[in-house]
Design brief:
This protein is mainly beta. It is 5% helix and 52% strand. The chain is built from four helices and 37 strands.
Length: 662
């Protein structure tokens, strides 16, 4: 906390000292990408040689499908929405979570739920993690740094986030970068302090026939568990302060901790005679074919510890009646090799194709045996290996009206033999400028159940299952009109042999077919300087006893926006409203960081409102937000997220995002 207090003072002094310079400074390089078709200036190629005194130019992209093709990814430089810095609400408009930030969560919009992570305990923390598949590569003419600092609450209630990026080119072909990300929260309710940090190094090199990239990152997390509110009436029927409400756990410290170390290395070798192509804003050379090798290793460790045990909270205590120290570890390696025939630059509808092999090995270190008489456990390892054949077809030419990316893989050897997955999308533009389009997404898969769900031994949870593979069919279709800022969509999900946690916190597999129907609409209305950005989802589960979802969830983002002081200042002021209908939201089991069924309490049917002021001065984005402002209108109510976890009372937050590149 002393570090954050010092950081607040330093940043405050820094802002006040130079804010007047920002307001008065004039620069011809205000925009991130100074090249545009309207200006008539030619954009530099991705490997062009930077010249002295040129404007800042930055190209950012991702390698899709482990190196099959690159796709431009624009960094978020918009002023709109900067006040919404909780990552879970960037990904989904409605969530079940524990109130504080960061904490385990799951989306209430079923089609937006995270896929199960190989290391299962990370599944409900995914938005707070920076993994190799999230990495954006840079190519810049000048060094680029982004600083984010967001904070809220007072002493004992503080919520802080620091996010620092730096990237620069060593030469025209080689870029290196680093990122440091820290989220820390005391929590408004007792015994909720949480912290997740990440440090990453990354680099990319692309010249002639050789393309390489690597990423190393390390995560550390510490989440203090309070087990939820003991008596819900203190929230629903009283005005008791949050910090005074008694929780189930935490009189002695109870923690979930985890550590992740990732290393990802990719190498590509281009084959044949290259041709220059323009792909969106990027001019580069495309070779007829290439070979790609991708190697990824990941070490994970999860630990649940408590100094003493509250027997009134847990259903079972199997191993130690005085304290708990459960360990669960994994070491994973994934190697993929592909041969790719690229799209033809002259014939824009001639697709690219590829095929290859994937090898995957997961080794889990855990307690593998439990003696019910002596209460002794035995530690050991379980190994899961498999080899897949992969193949795909794609056309991502930005000049084509029809784009698609369809990939498939099937397990042929080992534990994952017989598993298969086909997924991808087809997008058809409806006009030449591609402002409107129809898009269909599909996923059909048969996957073995995650090893964690089949076998686990812990102090409060023990199971040994032999679940059969789960089959999922997911289809989505949407109409998008960028000019009208409209999106309309429908979704159909059919799951056979669905696995879930029941009200006794035991994994179960249903023989019933589970169907989820979804529909959504998004629209931005504008009148003058007023904007009304609306999103609404409709959902229906055919098995409400297994999966309860809110029938309606909406997000209403409304603001006034204008430019002042000769366009030197962009101002945005408005309010956000979150709402979903009542449903049986899951409860949460701290010992395994897992959400599970309950049918005692409905949550939802409660609007949460935030008011905000956003300012943009040159490259600095500043916001002030008062979150959950309607808490003061009615100081008691059903403002729960998970069944026993209320969302935070009202809190003032502010922050700054600043980009430096010259």
């Amino acid at each position: 906390m002393r570090i954050f207090a010092a950081m607040k003072k330093i940043i405050g002094i820094f802002i006040l000292t130079i804010l007047h310079l920002i307001c008065l400074a004039q620069s011809e390089f205000d925009d991130y990408n100074s090249y545009s078709s309207e200006s008539g200036m030619q954009e530099p190629a991705r490997d062009s040689i930077p010249q002295e005194n040129i404007p800042h130019y930055r190209y950012t992209w991702k390698w899709m499908r482990n190196g099959v093709y690159s796709q431009e990814i624009l960094l978020d430089t918009l002023q709109d929405g900067i006040h919404n810095f909780n990552d879970i609400f960037k990904r989904s408009i409605s969530n079940t979570y524990l109130g504080n930030f960061p904490s385990p969560y799951e989306s209430n919009i079923f089609i937006e739920r995270n896929e199960i992570e190989d290391f299962y305990p990370l599944t409900y923390l995914r938005s707070f993690l920076f993994m190799p598949e999230d990495l954006v590569h840079f190519n810049t003419t000048t060094p680029y740094t982004r600083l984010k600092y967001f904070t809220g609450g007072g002493k004992g209630k503080a919520e802080n986030m620091i996010d620092v990026w730096h990237s620069q080119n060593i030469n025209p072909f080689w870029n290196i970068g680093a990122r440091y990300h820290l989220i820390s929260s005391d929590g408004r309710y007792a015994n909720q302090k949480s912290k997740i940090s990440n440090f990453s190094l990354f680099s990319s090199y692309e010249h002639n026939r050789i393309t390489t990239s690597f990423m190393f990152d390390q995560h550390k997390g510490e989440i203090r568990e309070n087990g939820g509110i003991q008596d819900r009436s203190y929230v629903t029927d009283s005005t008791e302060k949050a910090e005074n409400i008694q929780t189930w756990l935490g009189q002695d410290e109870v923690y979930n901790t985890f550590r992740i170390i990732n290393f990802n290395l990719q190498g590509q070798y281009n084959i044949g005679k290259p041709k220059q192509v323009i792909n969106g804003k990027d001019t580069t050379e495309l070779y007829p074919a290439k070979a790609v090798l991708n190697i990824r290793t990941q070490n994970n460790r999860h630990k649940f510890e408590e100094e003493s045990i509250n027997f009134g909270f847990y259903r079972h205590t199997y191993i130690d009646s005085t304290q708990t120290s459960d360990h669960y570890k994994s070491r994973m390696i994934d190697i993929s090799a592909k041969f790719i025939v690229n799209e033809h630059p002259k014939y824009k509808y001639l697709p690219g194709i590829y095929t290859g092999l994937d090898f995957k090995k997961d080794k889990y270190d855990q307690q593998v045996d439990f003696d019910t008489i002596t209460r002794n456990t035995k530690s050991g390892s379980k190994n899961y290996m498999g080899t897949y054949i992969t193949a795909g077809i794609f056309n991502m030419d930005t000049n084509a009206m029809l784009n698609y990316d369809i990939a498939g893989r099937i397990g042929i050897i080992g534990y994952y033999a017989g598993n298969f997955k086909v997924d991808g999308f087809i997008s058809q533009a409806l006009n030449r400028n591609k402002n409107s389009l129809l898009k269909a997404d599909v996923k059909i898969e048969l996957q073995s159940v995650n090893p964690f769900l089949n076998f686990y031994i812990g102090n409060h949870n023990i199971w040994d299952n032999d679940f059969k593979a789960v089959k999922t069919i997911n289809l989505e279709g949407r109409y998008i009109n960028k000019r009208l800022r409209t999106e309309l969509g429908i979704g159909f999900t059919n799951i056979f042999s669905h696995v879930y946690f029941d009200s006794t916190i035991m994994p179960q597999q249903t023989g019933k077919t589970l169907i989820i129907l979804s529909a959504w609409a998004k629209e931005v209305f504008r009148t003058g300087h007023f904007y009304f950005d609306q999103s609404v989802y409709f959902q229906k589960s055919t098995q409400e006893d297994i999966l309860s979802l809110p029938a309606i969830a909406l997000y209403s983002h409304n603001y006034y926006q204008n430019y002042l002081f000769k366009n030197a200042l962009q101002l945005q002021i408005g309010f956000d409203l979150y709402y979903n209908t009542g449903f049986y939201a899951d409860n949460y089991a701290p010992a395994i960081m897992q959400f599970h069924n309950q049918r005692e309490h409905k949550t939802g049917n409660y609007p949460k409102a935030d008011v905000f002021l956003n300012l943009k001065i040159k490259r600095a984005h500043i916001f002030v937000k008062y979150e959950h402002v309607n808490f003061h209108i009615k100081q008691h109510g059903n403002f729960f997220s998970a069944a026993d976890y209320p969302i935070n009372p009202a809190m003032l937050k502010f922050g700054i995002q600043w980009d430096f590149f010259d």
